[in-house]
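Sequence and structure are kept together here, with a separate record for every protein. An example record follows, reproduced without changes.
>
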Amino acid sequence: IQVLEYSDGTPATASQVAKDVCTFLKWAAEPEHDQRKLMAIKAIMIFSLLLSITYYIKRHKWSVMKSRKLA
């Protein structure tokens, strides 16, 4: 297949063209990929913030119980 010319000089072999077609089809099949990825990053940030707040509150609440002496 010599119909294609790559600007970076990559040889247009059958395996390279097949790889490019597969990559394009994967990209075309998931138009929401970028939006989903951005949403996942936001969710991870929010969950990590909530986890750190929860950990701080747990340490603050239970420090009294842990340091208490039983008579």
User: Anything to note?
Assistant: The chain has a mean pLDDT of 89.
